[in-house]
Design a protein that fits this description.
0% strand; globular; 75% helix; single chain; 16 helices; mainly alpha
């Protein structure tokens, strides 16, 4: 682990932690705010709705590692300030714009801002000098994001029902600007004492953005079938070039050489599908919610994720690591099936618990199964996997929903997919440690 210069240790935790985790809370709110209310925003139509939601996650997935390199170069305090400024300006822009294209472009930019935020928080928390401080920091991180994600649907519906949807853009922007000002005043001197790398590979980031954007675009519902197939194929080709470039680089942004399915790969695999199940379920459960009360199961789903760490500690004493992942994926699959045919409250509990276990287990086993010198690269792989899964979840669930026209059918199909993922995990042959 990298260590922070003495400047960070002089910052009291009662100041440092709020300034780190208020932005994380905002990101949690934003992760569900528009998933749950996109159908009620007047500017968006069917051809742009999924792009508006996914633009944020696509930019985040393509630039989160680039943001960590920038943080290593100029310091997490300065990078956090920059990320909050970008997040605020881009987040408020739709309130002044009136076209779906402009709204979607703003979401892409906002996703880049949140990439700077999340990479700065990861650098600051991961570089705290004491294990107990890092453990507290990671717990507060999960709690802050979960509370924000649980609040997003309710806040969004309340403002939409009141006819004040523009406040969904203005209020987070104001909070982000205030927080950014305090970060600049109090934390701008924080720098990493040393970093594994400060190289900024812009070309690889551009390839990731284009490739992933085209690939996800092909999964979505708008456009003709031929155009979508071509977009997916082009995305695959560009992502292949990205992977080849990373595989040959002595200092890759994302070290794909770590993706041996027998060890680290199964953790990234679980991260991706858990994140996709999470964001897709929120989007789909919200599609049939027509009131604030109907959104309560969606809000609760996000909160159940925070139980994952507690349940993981119980499961680790009884099951092998890969079996823990299988339990988490099976809970997601069961939750999707329950959402299709039974109670949304029970479905939300099962999905949220499964996702929470996958997140907690992936974090423990991914970072615990690599050498200390590889922890930073494993962390970058973890953040990228979650962001990739989040974007693909909305696109995949949304595309299926548009094709079938049935929430029940979409949940049933995705339950089968998650069941297959559960079965696939059994082929792990490596030894995962914590």
């Amino acid at each position: 682990m990298t260590a922070l210069a003495p400047a960070q240790r002089a910052v009291p935790k009662k100041i440092l932690f709020p300034l780190l985790f208020i932005p994380v809370f905002l990101g949690g709110v934003d992760s569900t705010l528009f998933n749950a209310n996109a159908y009620d925003l007047p500017v968006l139509d069917d051809s742009w709705r999924l792009w508006f939601i996914d633009g944020y996650s696509i930019a985040l997935a393509a630039s989160v590692v680039l943001g960590s390199r920038l943080g290593a170069r100029i310091g997490p305090g300065a990078t956090l300030t920059m990320g909050l400024a970008v997040f605020a300006v881009a987040g408020a822009s739709p309130a002044l714009l009136d076209s779906p294209e402009a709204w979607t472009a703003a979401r892409f930019v906002q996703g880049f801002g949140y990439a700077l935020i999340i990479s700065s928080v990861a650098s600051a928390v991961g570089s705290l000098p004491h294990t107990s401080e890092r453990a507290l920091g990671y717990s507060l991180w999960i709690l802050s994001f979960s509370m924000g994600a649980g609040s997003g649907p309710l806040v969004g519906r309340a403002f939409v029902d009141a006819g004040a949807y523009t406040l969904l853009f203005w209020l987070p922007a104001v909070v982000a600007l205030l927080c950014g000002s305090l970060v600049w005043l109090l934390l701008r001197g924080i720098n990493l004492g040393h970093a594994s790398s400060t190289k900024i590979d812009v070309a690889s980031s551009v390839l990731a953005l284009l490739g992933f954007g085209l690939f996800v675009g092909g999964l979505q519902s708008h456009g003709g079938m031929i155009a979508r197939l071509l977009a997916t194929a082009a995305g695959c080709v560009i992502l292949t070039f990205f992977c080849l470039r990373q595989g040959r680089s002595p200092d890759p942004l994302v070290d794909i050489r770590m993706l041996s399915f027998s060890r680290v790969g199964v953790c990234a695999f679980a991260f991706t599908f858990a994140a996709g199940c999470y964001t897709g379920s929120i989007f789909l459960l919200s599609a049939k919610a027509d009131s604030l009360v109907a959104l309560l199961p969606v809000a609760a789903l996000a909160l159940w994720v925070s139980l994952g760490g507690f349940v993981l500690n119980k499961l680790r004493m009884r099951l092998l690591p890969v079996q823990v992942f299988q339990v988490s994926m099976a809970l997601c699959a069961l939750g999707l099936a329950v959402a299709a045919f039974f109670n949304p409250w029970l479905a939300g509990f099962l999905i949220g618990l499964g996702v929470g276990i996958a997140y907690a287990a992936g974090d423990v086993y991914l970072l615990g199964s690599v050498a200390p010198k590889d922890v930073a690269r494993a962390g970058a792989l973890q953040e990228t996997s979650i962001a990739v899964g989040a974007a693909m979840g909305v696109a995949g669930f949304g595309g299926l929903f548009a094709s079938t026209g049935s929430v029940t059918m979409t949940f049933a199909i995705t339950a089968v997919v998650m069941g297959a993922v559960t079965w696939t995990c059994r082929y792990n042959r490596g030894v995962l440690t914590a």
